[in-house]
Specification:
This protein is of the alpha+beta class and 232 residues long. It contains three helices and ten strands.
Length: 232
């Protein structure tokens, strides 16, 4: 419709009204995808280091059962057995290993004094110039070996002793004379399995000058040591 008074026609008014500027539509925020993340970042967490398996504690053992207390009779029997075993060991040692004797007299002075306790070694063989324990006529005596089997012993009338023509090197300060009324004749050859024994105190002729050489089976071995007793 057109007015003549100069007003705009409704169609023109409609055309002259300016429409508001269109607001640009905002795009929705996009969640980053795994492809959009940096290469050094991963969506999965870092793997955890596995823990070492725990050692199982060993099973506890049941405490040992205590034996019932022994009766007085069993204790007494055990004590007697121990005493018997100890006595048996001591007897065996002093029967087959060691010889033990108390010496009375001065026939071996100054090496052995009257009253000394002597210990010998049965397992050791006798040797020249060794002091030995030996048994003769049921008694234990002490003497010095001066000759072994096969040697020739000679005692001159002037008291000179020789073995195989040589004087022994033992430091004996007494002259050696033959025993009176003795069946032993000199020079004397020592028989097999025997030894010739003399006392250090040569004035005492109760040795091989009187009864001849001593059988090895009657020896109780060379002397190991002496225990000197005072005022026995």
């Amino acid at each position: 419709m057109i007015q003549t008074s100069g007003q705009l026609e409704p169609a023109e008014v409609k055309d002259s009204v300016q429409e508001p500027d269109a607001v640009p539509a905002t795009e929705p925020e996009q969640t980053p995808t795994p492809e959009d993340k940096p290469a050094n970042e991963t969506s999965e967490p870092a793997p955890k280091t596995p823990k070492p398996p725990k050692k199982k504690a060993p099973p506890k053992k049941a405490p040992p059962r205590r034996p019932p207390p022994k009766s007085t009779g069993r204790l007494l029997v055990g004590l007697l057995v121990k005493i018997a075993v100890t006595v048996g060991l001591v007897w065996a040692v002093f029967t087959f290993v060691l010889g033990l004797s108390v010496h009375y007299g001065n026939n071996m002075f100054p090496a052995v004094h009257d009253g000394d306790l002597l210990v010998s070694l049965r397992l050791q063989k006798p040797y020249i110039n060794s002091v030995v324990l030996y048994r003769i006529n049921g008694k234990t005596e002490v003497g010095r070996v001066i000759a072994l089997e096969g040697s020739v012993v000679d005692i001159a009338k002037n008291g000179l002793l020789t073995v195989n023509g040589v004087a022994p090197t033992a430091e004996i300060f007494y002259a050696t004379y033959q025993a009176e009324n003795s069946p032993i004749q000199f020079p004397y050859t020592v028989e097999n399995g025997k030894v010739f024994i003399l006392n250090d105190f040569r004035d005492d002729p109760n040795d091989s000058r009187m009864f001849g050489a001593v059988d090895r089976k009657d020896l109780e071995g060379p002397m190991l040591f002496t225990v000197r007793r005072r005022n026995f």
